[in-house]
Specification:
The chain is an all-alpha fold and about 500 residues long. The protein folds into two domains: about 160 residues; about 290 residues. The chain is built from 20 helices and four strands. The strands form two sheets. A two-stranded parallel ribbon has the order 1-4. A hairpin with a 5-residue loop joins strand 2 and strand 3. Helix 4 packs across helix 8 and helix 9 packs parallel to helix 12. The longest helix has about 45 residues.
């Protein structure tokens, strides 16, 4: 018989570490990510350590014999309360603890009342009454926690339902619902007090301070995003749209864009922080009783109204239809001046809130308004660049006057217009040649028109009206950009009013 030889592949030692190296590198990468997160946000580490300390202190009441003999097995509710009540900020912990205490108290009272009625009804009707009470309490609390004005007490209604069921059922089996309620209440009180003491005494994280910093950060984000957006729009060679379905919200060369997006979505966060801050006692810089935290939310809403306009500018920057660069250059200085003044004023408002000081902003407001008027006047004087077709002469046959009554001399400004009209095309250039040049330079929509012109060079008269329409649309995108910028300035006026109202209510110091 012939023997069959089977070759079993062997792995040398040098080949083994490859997968191990890859696994090790992944583990090291994860460690680096955790370390980076801890360095950037050390408050999360502090919060985790405080939770561990609070739960440990409550658990000692169960682990040591002496306190366990005093409180009994119901002390386990103290540990559960410490876990459920402890929140990131002091205000949220107070809010959570109040809702839990109120819910437990109301549920205990209702459970005792139902238990007494059930006991007086006899053994046959007792379970029926208890079952119906559980059903109606579940229906009522579930409905009420969805009522708009009672949403903030949603946790309280959950506790009412859970506590009522536990007390009424355990009391039915053990025959002492009053004792069950009392044990539950003091256990909750112990767990809640330990959680509050640890949260306040050990590196407290105040919701008011978090709200204050978040609002100031949003001011700087809007100002940075505005400057970044306009800078890209005025750069030469930036008229090609970078917007694609694969890169939505992923503009790596625009770091301030994501900050502006976070500002637009900061409304729920500001409202939650404001609701938590209302529960906090006067602390730190906020020593005023009944501090106007709700006005912070109002200022944040007006600021988001401004941020919407910044996003409108951003959509124009990355739109498919773009104005030629040399047309944008006509208004470069005026646009840049408005943006500089607007961004500076927004930053000043943010610094006023940060330092809690009220500064005089009249000079900055006047500069912003005057620069905006100059931009609008320049838009009016050069409006012919936006409405005159490229293939027709932009020079009028007769002299015209502007609003100020000054006579405009086209023959004196002909060299200036030759640089500023769309694509720099003069009427003396043959139409076919000018169309070819402007189609190669302009990134308008639809792009297929360029190929259509190259393939059908003989049908110039047919494509001419379509090219004029595309040019007009591209020029109007610049008018849209300037209009959105002026609208942003108008909204800044409302932002100034909101910040002034906050400074009066919070009693900011005059600078």
């Amino acid at each position: 018989m012939e023997s069959i030889k089977i070759n079993i592949p062997t792995t040398t030692k040098s080949e083994l570490p490859e997968s191990g190296i890859k696994s090790g590198s992944r583990d090291w990468f994860q460690i680096q990510r955790v370390w980076k997160f801890c360095k950037e946000d050390n408050s999360s580490i502090i919060f985790a350590l405080k939770v561990g300390l609070a739960v440990l202190l409550v658990s000692l009441l169960e682990l040591f014999k002496a306190p366990y003999q005093v409180f009994g097995p119901n002390i386990i509710w103290a540990t559960l309360t410490a876990v459920l009540v402890f929140e990131f900020t002091v205000g949220a912990t107070f809010n959570r603890g109040f809702n839990r205490a109120l819910g437990s108290l109301l549920a205990g009272i209702m459970a005792i009342a139902v238990a007494q009625i059930a006991l007086c009804s006899g053994h046959v009707a007792e379970p029926i009454i208890i079952g119906l009470s559980i059903f109606f309490i579940a229906v009522i609390t579930s409905f009420m926690k969805m009522w708009p004005s009672l949403v903030q007490y949603e946790y309280c209604f959950r506790i009412i339902l859970a506590t009522h069921c536990l007390i009424i059922v355990s009391g039915y089996r053990m025959g002492n619902p009053i004792r069950t309620m009392i044990d539950r209440l003091y256990a909750i009180a112990i767990g809640g007090m330990i959680s509050v003491l640890v949260n306040v005494s050990v590196f407290p994280i105040w919701a008011g301070e978090q709200l204050h910093k978040e609002l100031v950060k949003n001011f700087h984000s809007v100002a940075d995003s505005l400057e970044e957006c306009v800078k890209i729009y005025l750069e030469e060679g930036s008229q090609k749209s970078k917007f694609t379905t694969a890169s939505i919200d992923e503009f790596v060369d625009e770091p301030a864009y994501k900050k502006c997006l976070s500002t637009l979505s900061s409304g729920p966060k500001l409202e939650a922080l404001a609701d938590s801050a209302k529960w906090e006692p006067p602390h730190g810089r906020f020593l005023q009783f009944l501090y106007p935290w709700s006005q912070y939310v109002e200022v944040g809403a007006v600021l988001r109204h401004c941020a919407y306009e910044v996003m409108a500018l951003h959509s124009i920057v990355h739109a498919e239809i773009q104005a030629p660069y040399n047309l944008r250059a006509v208004f470069r200085s005026e646009i840049q001046e408005v943006v500089n003044q607007a961004a500076e004023l927004v930053r000043i408002l943010g610094r006023d809130i940060s330092s809690m000081k009220s500064t005089l902003k009249n000079s900055h407001i006047n500069k912003l308004h005057s620069s905006t008027e100059m931009l609008q006047r320049s838009m009016h004087l050069h409006s012919y660049l936006l409405i005159t077709p490229t293939f027709e002469s932009p020079f009028p046959d007769k002299l015209k006057t502007d609003q100020t009554g000054m006579v405009k001399h086209p023959e004196k400004n002909s060299h200036l217009l030759a640089q500023n009209i769309p694509n720099g095309i003069m009427p003396s250039i043959p139409p076919e040649q000018s169309m070819r040049k402007q189609l190669r330079r302009q990134y308008s929509w639809p792009c297929s028109e360029v190929g259509a012109f190259e393939e059908n060079i003989g049908t110039t008269t047919e494509l001419l009206p379509r090219m004029r329409a595309l040019e007009s649309t591209a020029a109007l995108s610049l008018a849209n950009f300037i209009s959105s910028l002026v609208e942003f300035v108008a909204r800044v006026d409302h932002l100034i009013e909101a910040v002034d109202k906050l400074s009066k209510m919070a009693k900011f110091k005059p600078h």
